[in-house]
Each structure stands twice: as C-alpha cells, then as structure tokens.
Amino acid sequence: MIIKNEELREIIRRIALLNALSYKGKTRVQPVLGKLLAEQPHLKERVKEVSSLIAEVVQEVNNLSLSEQQRIVEEKWPEALVKEKVEKEKRLPPLPNADKYAQVVTRFSPNPDCVLHLGSARAIILCYEYSRMYRGKFILRFEDTDPKLKRPVLEFYDRIREDLAWLGCKPDEEYIQSDRIPIYYEYAEKLLRDGNAYICACQPERFREKILASKPCECRNLPSEEQLERWRRMLEGSYREGEVVFRVKTDLNHPNPAVRDWPALRVIDAEKYPHPRVGSKYRVWPLYNFACGIDDHLMGVTHIIRGKEHLTNMVRQEYMYKYLGWQYPEAIHYGRLKITGASLSKSKIVQGIREGLYKDWDDPRLATFAALRRRGITPEAIKKMIIDVGPKTSDVILSWENMYAYNRKILDPTADRYFFVHNPIELTVKQIPKVFMARLHLHPDQPERGFREYTIKPQGDKNSAGFWVSKKDVDDSKIGNIIRLMELFNIEIESVNAYSAQASFISESYEEVRKTKSQLIHWIPVGEDMPCQVVMPDATVAEGIAESACKQLKPNSIIQFERFGFVRIDKVNTKLTAYYAHK
Ligand SMILES: [Zn+2]
User: Fold this and answer.
1) CA 574 to chain centre
2) In angstroms, what CA-CA distances link 361 with 295, 352, 374?
3) Which of 145, 255, 329, 335 has the fewest CB atoms within 10 Å, i.e. the most exposed one?
4) Ligand 1 is a single-atom ion; what residues have CB below 5 A from it?
C-alpha cells in the first residue's frame, strides 16, 4: 500500500538482501518480485516499473560481499534475521503527550448531509482505536450548522450511527451542534465584548480588497458597544442573509490571507432554509471553525486526529483559543488516503442517487459503508487496513484489491463453501457404473464443519445422470477432454451445443486426473438446484443456479461460491440473491 518510490526501493532492498543471504550472497529478480507481490499485491498493476527497479536493486545487492549484506540486514532489519516469517500485529504509534491528560478524548465529527463512506474510515477508526488504546473517550459530534449549503438530512443522523455501530466504533458520547446554538452565541458575545471579534457589514469584495492588503475594514475597530448592538440586531433579524459576517480578529499580516479575520458566524434566511431538526428557530449560524473550535474545548477533546487539509483551520482556531484563554488540543494531521477506483465524493454520490444512477445508498458501485456491508466486506478488514496505514502524514493510495486482500484473509477461514453455476447448461453423463454419494466439505480445511450431500443415481438404459455446469467449463474446445467433477468422478466431454452437453463416465479416482492436470469443475445435480442471482460490484447481475443446500442459508451470511468468489447472502426465498464481494 506504500506507493512512494523511496519506500518501495527500501522494501525491495530488504527482500533482495534477505534472499541473497539465503543464497550465498547472490539474488535474482524473479524471487524478489514474487516475494514483493506476495507482500504488496497491488503492485501487480505496476509490474513492469517495479521489475526494473528490482533489477537495479538486485545488481546493487549482488555487488556487495556476503558479510556486507549480513551487516546491513543486522543493522536495519534485525528482526528479519530472527524470524523472517513472523507477521507482526501492527499497532498504532503512541499519541503525543497522552500522559499530559487525565483521559484521552477523541472525536469524530461528520456533517449528516450524506451517508458515510470509506473516506471517513481513517478518521473514525483512528479516533476510536486511540480512545480504546488509552482507555479514553470517543465522541460522536454531528456538525450540522449549515442549513443552506451543506444541508443536514434527518435520515443520515441514524445512518451514521448505524455505520459506526457496524464498524465496531460505538461512541461513548454524542452531541449535535444544532442543539448547542445558544452556547455558540454566548462565546460569540464574549469575543465581541473583549474586542477580539467584530461584525463586518462591508460588501464582500470591499472586505476582500482590504484584507488582501492587510488593512482593517471600517467595521473592525468600531467600539465593542457598537459591535454588541450589531450582534443584537443580527440575532433579532434586522440583517438579511449576506449583509453581515461575524469575524474573529487575527494578525492582519498573517502570511496566509485565508487565515486573516476568518468568518465565524453568518445570517441564513431561516424561512427559506429551515433546519431539519430545529426548523426556523435560528437565523445566525456558526461556521465550521467556530463551532468546532468551541466544542473541542468544551467537550474536553485532547487529541484531534484529522486530515492535513485541516492544518489551516487549526491556525485559525488557535487565535480564538488564545482569546478565550484555552489550550489548543494536540492535533495529528494525517495524509490523504485515496482508494483508486472508488468515488469518495459526497456530492457525486448524492447527485447520482438523486438522478437515479444509483439505486440506493448501498448500491454496489459506491464506496459507502452501507454498500460495503451489503457486499460482505467486513468491518474487521477495513479496521485492519486503516490501522496498518496508521496516522502517517504522507499520502497513501490503496486499491480495492488491497481491501479485498484484507477481507479475504478474514473470510477464507470462516466462509462455508457452496456451488454456484453461472450461465448453466445441462450436462448429461452416461455410463455411470453405480450410485455415488457425494460428500462435499463445507470447508476444505475444517471437515468438522460438515458436508453437503448429494446422491447421484444413474437412470435409464444408458445409466446417465444430469448436472448443471457452467457453459464456459465445457465449451466446444473441450470435446475429447477429461474433466473431473469436483469430489465426484472423471468424465470425458463428447459433445456440446448451446443448451446442453454430453459426456461419459471415465473413472473415479482423483489421482488419475491429477497426473494429467485435468480441469476440476463444480457441478450441481439437476433437481438439487435453486435459481440464484449474484449482484456484481458494477451492479450487473450474474444469473445462475445454486445448489439446493443453499436453501438453508441465512441472509447476511457470507459464503464462498467455489471458483466464483465470496458473496454475501442478501435474500433467500424460492430464489437466492447474493452480493459479490471479491474473488
Ligand atoms: Zn467591514
């Protein structure tokens, strides 16, 4: 998941050196590439580029003497020499100054204007995990103070709560900013009274000109009595939207003009833009930095963990903290996390839903938690991935494949196996010499989990039985081939047309086909079937037939359709509906 080239080079160096140590000081490109791709499967997309980097490093390493190689490894990766294979449970690095505080308090503060998606995973999981690591407190705070441009929607408050519960990150406390408006007013008034803020009634362009030139506008130095009078009029509704802005004073010469005298509260037309929770009760609404800054202090947040795009917000808020005599919390700003191929834009998600492009918030094409949940991506996989990435400040690019790899590790030992035949055709097998009892393991490594059992009883004068198999497993090119029906017997394909195929029984033993490396295919006895559709990640539907044992499955269970992929069972009635997770 690390994409920076110097880091990648270092990883390759470690692998190449360890490999050289096992082979008398000489390494080669192939084994290094193999090991690298096993560790970092997403690099498969960049094999060419990576291979040439490996070739360089391999040459470098081969030019070193064995003892030099030994010394470098001892110095840089001593643990690798002890046990190369031990996979360490990755822990988060410690928080700065955690022992300065009686209790570590973190918060996740979404705007309920959309459901949550993978883009929030880092904030949620890091804040929650750190609060557990230090036996602290994790706060959920709904930041819903923009009824105009980032209008909150009632259903999302609950959806966000559900998402957090699903992720296993249940908050210890919850606050909603729209319940706290009087608190923000109180601090606004204090800032005005102390001369640390002002109400600006300038035209926005006029203010901009002044501030860019580091000059105060006409409102800035008016006495606090005048400011308080403007404040009173602001609250009672004498100003229309856009006429005045409450600003917190900063250094007018601050190198970043966006920091200078930042806006803290403004008027919103309460009739035109009623708030979904409090209606038209308030006309003056705090902006992000003001409400968030006040709350972090009042809620006792000790560690703010958020993306580095918030660095400027910290600079803004620090002025207010100084005026109020407060200590700014510890702030950890992590780098951007991108998931290639996942749209993490709230506005695009909302627009797609509105235009009917997506069926719902859990449409499999979306990277919302609801969609991931429906597809059988486990919260444990997301958690593990985020903890492995940690709070580092460099940007990180992950792919869906990375997440699938985490999820596969969790599902592989737990998911029961079943057969699903995609694009089925009926295969008739003749000359079956006896009745076969097929016992198919629910899990190949865990026989104690039991079996699915099917009896194959040859019928008629040709001793034949019918099976559903996938068309692509027995297509024209396979005529004359020996194929094994998994865990059953070996057959020879004799003819294939669009709807059916004919074959003859050849033998029973697996050993026989193992030598010839014959294909093993899955099958369902005709009559032991149920219709099944699998909704794929691109929202297309794979139609087929599932084996009758699937009738016992419960919705929400995650299974593996062998040779097809992991799926989450969505509905079970006369038809089975599943959602595809990954291979
Ligand atoms: Zn002004």
Assistant:
1) 33
2) 30, 10, 10
3) 255
4) 200, 202, 217, 219
Q: 309 CA distance to ligand 1 centroid (A)?
A: 28
Which tokens sit at 238? 């004498």
pTM of the predicted model as reported, rounded to 2 decimal places: 0.82
Distance in angstroms (rounded) separating the CA atoms of residues 176 and 277: 10
Contact 423, 472 (CB under 8 A): yes
For residue 264, report the distance from its CA to the centre of ligand 1, in Å.
14
CA–CA separation, 128 and 107 (whole Å) = 8
**pLDDT digits over 410-427, tens only?**
999 999 999 999 999 999
Closest CA to 334 of 70, 122, 485: 122
Q: What is the pLDDT of residues 308-331, one digit of tens each?
A: 999 999 999 999 999 999 999 999
The amino acid at residue 540 is T
For residue 177, report the distance from its CA to the centre of ligand 1, in Å. Answer: 28
Contacts of 23 (CB under 8 A, 6+ apart): none
Backbone angles phi, psi at 152, to 5 degrees: -70, 155
**Cα gap 79→86, rounded to integer Å:** 9
580, containing H or E segment: strand 576-582
Q: What is the DSSP string of 43-87?
A: GGGGHHHHHHHHHHHHHHHHTS-HHHHHHHHHHH-HHHHH-TTPP
pLDDT digits (tens, 9 = 90+) for 85-139: 444 556 899 999 999 999 999 999 999 999 999 999 999 999 999 999 999 999 9
Cβ 517 vs Cβ 528: under 8 Å: no
Which residues are CB-contacts of 323 (< 8 A; sequence separation ≥ 6)? Answer: 191, 194, 196, 197, 248
341 φψ region: left (φ > 0), alpha (ψ -120 to 50), beta (else): left
CA of 253 to the centre of ligand 1 (A): 17
Q: Where are the alpha helices (DSSP H) in 168-256?
A: 181-193, 204-212, 224-236
Give the side-chain half-sphere CA count within 13 A for 525.
20
pLDDT of residue 39: 84
